[in-house]
Amino acid sequence: MQDQAPLAARTAAWVAVLIGAFAVATNLRGYLCEQRSLKALLRRLLPHGRVETREDLITLKRFLSASISYDLSKRHDRRPLLRQSAATTLARGEGFCGENARVAIRLLNLGGVRAHRLYLQGKQWSHVLVEHDWENGPRLFDSHPDPGTLLRDEDVGRIGPSEFERLPNAYHELNPWLASFRIKLPQRPTLWRPLSQCRPPRLLVAVAESPDLLRALAGLALLCAGLLAASAL
Fold it and tell me: For the chain (length 233 residues), average pLDDT per consecutive 10?
């Protein structure tokens, strides 16, 4: 019986290694396939497959607002911890502001424009849009097709993150925008609040906006834990 315990532990460790390796391989493959499909989409939408002019930004905004609809009746549905990928959102043609922002962020970054999320905090509800580099400064981008908040073509690439009051908001009387932040952190303790304004590094954005990469990292953690356990036995 004493010999069976180490054997069971070694077996569990190597099972963890195999499961972790499988998760890393399959999810990295999924991420690379998604990258290729998003790059192909950019090549179809834009002349050089890159976001180079304000007209390119407008083209991207129009495409996403026309391609991704939303159903308000589903706004209270339970949603998984890992939201759907950009490719899934495009394939289904459905998603709320967070899903729309994810697709925009992935396409903008692949198109050569650094981009990440910006959260708007309202009196009644919040909203997710995109902050991106443009003309030597950050600008706001929003392609979520809510007619009350959809960014006008003439404002694309022209509104800075501190000017969110310039954004369209037909619900202003009910839900004025009160604040914005770049990283979603607990509101308490208050020491977190300055950190929520920090601009996330590119690598963090790449991982956070890809469920495949998040699952690959979880698989890597399991693989490493299994290897450590196996070596210690």
Answer: 68 92 97 97 95 97 97 82 90 95 98 97 94 95 96 96 92 94 78 84 95 96 93 81
DSSP helix, strand, coil percent of the chain (3-state; round to 5): 50, 10, 35
Alpha carbons 34 and 14: distance in angstroms, whole number: 30
According to DSSP H, which parts of the chain are helical? 4-45, 54-67, 86-92, 97-110, 192-195, 202-208, 211-232
Domains of the chain (ranges plus CATH)? 4-73+81-232 (3.10.620)
Whether the CB-CB separation of 168 and 148 falls below 8 Å is answered with yes
Phi-psi region of 50 (alpha: psi -120 to 50; beta: other; left: phi over 0): beta
